[in-house]
Structure formats: C-alpha cells, structure tokens
Amino acid sequence: MNIQSKKLKNLLIAILVLAGITSVSAASFPQKPIALIVPFAPGGGTDSIARDLSKTLSEKLGQPVVVDNRGGGGGSIGASMGSKATPDGYTLLFVTSTFVTHAATDESAGYNIEKDFSPVAMIGRGPLLVVTNKSVPAKTLSELIQFSNQTRDVNYCSAGLGSINHLSGELFKQKTGANLTHIPYKGSGPATIDLLAGRVQVFFATIPTILPYVETDRVNVLAITSEKRSPLFPNVPTAAEAGVPGFNLSTWWGIVAPAGTPQAIVKRLNEAINDAASKDPLKSRLAKEGAQAYKVSPTEFQKILNNELKLWQSVVKSANIKIE
Fold first, then answer.
1. Which percentage of the chain shows pLDDT scores above 70?
2. Distance from chain centroid for Cα 72
3. How many whole angstroms separate alpha carbon 168 and alpha carbon 187?
4. Which one, 14, 187, 200, 274, has the greatest CB density within 10 A?
5. Phi and psi for 177 in degrees, rounded to 5?
C-alpha cells in the first residue's frame, strides 16, 4: 500500500469514527442541563413563553432546560452571547422577530444571523393590528392613507428604533405612500399610553399589547396583517382586503443554536419543540398572545430568517434608517 493510499484510508477511518461519535452523541442527547438564553428581562409575554417552553422541554428531554435572562441592547447582548457558545446543543437562544429587525437596523448589533447561528425551530407566530386612536376619522386603510396625505401631521408610534412596529410602519409607507412620521418610544407600554391619549395617531401593534384596548373599544382597528382573517377578530379585514396587498407581517418566537451544532441534535430539538408548541401550557400561552404554533423544519426556519432579513434590510435602506 503506497503512502497516498494509507493517507486516504486513515482519512476514511477518521470520517467514520467522527460520524459514529456524532451519531452516538445525538442519540444520547441530552446528558446534562441545557441553558436557554432569553435576551430580555424577566417578566412579560416573551419571557413567559420561554419559561413554558423550558418546562415542557425539560419533561420531554429528561434534563433541565434552564432559562438564563440576558436583557439589554434590544436583545443584542443575549444574541451575541448565544452566538459565541459552544455548538453542542447545550446552549440555545430564544429569539423573536426583533432578532431580525434589530440585525437589519443596527450594524453594530454584534451578531450575524446568516453566519453565527443554526436555526432550530419556530415556536409560534401572530399578526399585527393596524390601529388608531379614537380621534382619527379614518375607518379603513384607504381612508388612513388619504387622511395622512391631507393633514401631513399624522404620527405613528413604536416600541423603539428597529422594532417590528417601527419597520412595519416604514414598509406601510413605502407600499402606500402614506405620509406618516415615526415617533419611537422606550417600549410598547409608553407608546400605547400616548396613542390612547391622542398624542400619536397610529400604531402597528402586536396583539397582546393592544388587545385590552380593542376589547374596551378605546382604539379603532383598521386591519390585521395576516393572510386570512383571525378568529379573534372576524370582522377585521386583512391588509390585502383593505387594499394593501403583500402587507403580511407577524411577530414570532423561535429557537436557534450556535453555528456548527450537529444537525442530528438540531433535528432532535426541532421535533421536541414542535411537539411542545402544539400542547398546553405553551399552546394556551401562545393563544393569549394572539398567536398559534408554527411548525417548520430547521431548513424552512432558515429560509424564513433569510427572507425576513432581506425584507427589513431593504426597508431600512429605502428609509435611510440609522441607529447611532
């Protein structure tokens, strides 16, 4: 046997051994507790979803799944931390739609969605509601567009620069020509307070944020950003029905792992998360957020992340949005 043949043989043996190790490790995964980084402070709907997921996953996987809150920087601190973790499946990152909008808006976010992570699973997703305060005379999206162009002093609020509310408003402007001025707040709470007080006129709001005020008729609901009408709001038209086709947006929750995590482990986690999201308590928690479980494969989740990143990067570029 010549030297080249020996090298080839040794290489093949190494590949087979490595494949065997990966197979065994995946089959026995997990053998110790899993850390779930949540890039937001404790409390609130997002943290509650993460904790319901961790409880169910702990039962399914036979090991504790421990929530590790790492808030700050619009989620970038936790995301950056997750990207640098060992890619062995024992450190996961809980992500939301902000994971993408923040990356698209802030060049110093500290993480690269396409290079730093292995998508694992989506948990659920829910649409936004286009609402106005009660003083706005517009009752439809068409009337809102007309009203904004006539008065030229219509503001829309958001939870902050780079939030889903912010970029949704910019996309709406680009699609319709509506004359809306963005007013950022430090969170959805202060934005909602000023909406109700009439200091801002429009909000592209997540359902859990605005639902109490919809139920008490303190805001006008013009449209929902889903492809089909929601059973929660059967009388509210979709954006497409209201004359703005292609304005299908959602807030969502999911799990990613550090890039390089073995695909067999990713697949195992994907199956466990998909199963957990379709049952209580997580199913009921999602329903309270106006959302539902959304099962996709890791490959499909990757496509969703890539498509959303391209969409929001395009919106940011067209609107010349910069975060200093």
1. 92
2. 16
3. 16
4. 200
5. 80, 10
Q: Global pTM?
A: 0.86
- pLDDT, tens digit (0-9, with 9 covering 90-100), for 196-237: 999 999 999 999 889 999 999 999 999 999 999 998 899 999
Amino acid letter at 125?
Answer: R
| Residue 289 domain boundaries | 31-126+251-319
- 2 φ, ψ (degrees, to nearest 5): -75, 175
- Which residues in the chain come in under a pLDDT of 70? 1-26, 324
User: What are the φ and ψ backbone dihedral angles of 228, each rounded to 5 degrees?
Assistant: -125, 160
CATH number of the domain to which 307 belongs: 3.40.190.150
CA 233 – CA 224 distance, rounded (Å) = 9
Q: Among 205, 224, 243, which residue terminates a domain?
A: 224
C-beta of residue 268 within 8 angstroms of C-beta of residue 26: yes
Q: Which of 50, 57, 59, 105 is nearest to 78 (CA)?
A: 50
Max CA pair span of the chain: 87
What residue type is assigned to position 217 of the chain? D
Give domain status of residue 241, yes or no. Answer: no
Q: Can you list the alpha helix ranges (DSSP code H) found in the chain?
A: 3-27, 44-61, 76-83, 98-105, 113-116, 141-151, 164-176, 188-197, 207-215, 263-277, 282-288, 298-319
What's the domain count of the chain? 2
